[in-house]
Write a structure and sequence with these properties.
It contains three helices and nine strands. It is an alpha+beta fold and 160 residues long. The strands form two sheets. Strands 3-4-8-7-6-5 form a six-stranded antiparallel sheet.
C-alpha cells in the first residue's frame, strides 16, 4: 500500500525531474578543494552521478540501492570521497531517497534554491561543490532535519 507521503514524494520527483531536464544547472559557484573541469568530471563519474553532482539532477525515488543500506559505515561524496553522513544518522523517511538527520561536522554546505518557484535549502559537498540533495524541517529528533540525498551522489563505505 502506498501512503500519502510516498505518493507526494514520487509526484514531486517527477515534477523536479521534468523541470531539471529542461534546465542547464551546474554546481555552486566558488572555490572548492577539489575543482575539476567539466570534461574531467564526466570522465570520473557515471552519467547519473555526473548529472546529479554537477548539474543538479534528481534520481527517481526508490531507485537507489542505498535506501536499503543498513550496515554500519559512512556515506561519502561520490565525486570526491569526502565522508558526509554516518550510518547512525540514517533513517527511513518514506520519500524514496536516502535520508539522514544530520551530516558529519563540516561536511556539507548549503545554498538557497528557487528552481521550483519557492525557496528550498540545497545541500552540496563542502569539498567539491557537488549537488547532494535538499534539507527539510520535517525530520526526526534530535535535529528535526531531513537531509534528503540522491543515492547516486553518495558512496557507502562499510565500517571496517
Amino acid at each position: 500500500m502506498i501512503d500519502r507521503r510516498t505518493l507526494l514524494g514520487a509526484g514531486m520527483a517527477t515534477a523536479v525531474t521534468a523541470i531539471i531536464a529542461g534546465r542547464a544547472m551546474s554546481a555552486p559557484e566558488g572555490r572548492f578543494e577539489v575543482s575539476l573541469s567539466d570534461a574531467e568530471w564526466r570522465k570520473r563519474l557515471s552519467l547519473a552521478a555526473y548529472q546529479t553532482l554537477r548539474h543538479e539532477a534528481t534520481e527517481p525515488p526508490f531507485s537507489s540501492p542505498l535506501n536499503k543500506e543498513h550496515r554500519a559505515g559512512t556515506f561519502a561524496c561520490a565525486g570526491c570521497a569526502l565522508p558526509l553522513f554516518s550510518s547512525r544518522t540514517k533513517f527511513d523517511s518514506g520519500t524514496g531517497w536516502p535520508s539522514f538527520w544530520a551530516p558529519l561536522p563540516k561536511a556539507v554546505g548549503t545554498s538557497t534554491d528557487h528552481m521550483l518557484g519557492f525557496a528550498r535549502t540545497e545541500v552540496h559537498c563542502r569539498r567539491c561543490g557537488g549537488h547532494l540533495g535538499h534539507v527539510f524541517d520535517d525530520g526526526p529528533p534530535p535535529t528535526g532535519k531531513r537531509y534528503c540525498m540522491n543515492g547516486v551522489a553518495l558512496a557507502f563505505v562499510p565500517k571496517g
